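Below is one protein, fold included:
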Amino acid sequence: MSKITITKPDDWHLHFRDGELLNETVPATARCFQRAIVMPNLVPPVRNRAEALAYKQRILAAKPSGSDFEPLMVLYLTNDTTADDIRQAVGDDIPAAKLYPAGATTNSDAAVSGIESLYPIFETMSEVGMLLLIHGEVTDAETDIFDRERLFIEQHLAPIHSRFPELKIVFEHITTADAADFVLAATPSLAATITPQHLLLNRNDLLVGGIKPHNYCLPVLKRSTHQQRLRDVVASGSPKFFLGTDSAPHAKHTKETACGCAGCYSAWGALELYTQVFDDLNCLDKLEGFASLYGPDFYGLPRNTEQLTLKREPWVMPQEIQLANGDSIVPFFAGQTLNWQIT
């Protein structure tokens, strides 16, 4: 197959950041995605309806002229979140709220400590139909970083899903066979997103031959057996798994440092990379469901009506992307050849 046409896809998990960086990140996503779930871990975080809608306006101001791209906003749950915050925010503009365990990832210092204390908030979210998005890792210092996701399932996700069976939960950017199998065995109210880096890479790609900071993300890359399980579930066509890039830009000098930032900036080639995965797995017929259909179905939103075509034609990802302030970003798969491109 040399060409494939699918319903225009959405990105159900990404980071735009804020300020001048929006002029890079928003057009990069709007080039191929109709909608995107926008992560709220700014400084300060997006905690209520007013802050979410103000952030949305900054995003819309940065989208390309004539684009119909739509950002979908998310509240950042803290130990101070109230039921009124949820009730006032729920709606098409703000379909979800995000649970970050404190210290789990970039700008998560203000996040939740003592997850059980949020159970009354989860009850309200279940009542009003707001989705719960979860960064599923325990963060206590004694836990091996490669076990964080598995232990989060046992200690937190399984009890939450059991206690609130009607609450729609997205287990975001899953990285392990444990997570894939838990989602498959769960009721239809639990689904998961999967990133391009966790389908394409494993921890050898981070560590062998020297640490590769631009492949460092959280949750961290796992062993190849976990990578293969993720590839198996997307190839199966299960509607419980859908596209969420977790595209996360950081300036080059903040990645290539003694304590490099976590995140892969995949927006410049995300859809093309996913297409390459599905092509490698000989299941291009499953790409449209994963990229374009299962996400809106789970969120209860209409499917897009426009279409998008990709053709098999090699191109090389740029080594760096220059920003207006003089900084640069190294994109995911920098300098490497991708086999598919959007027409």
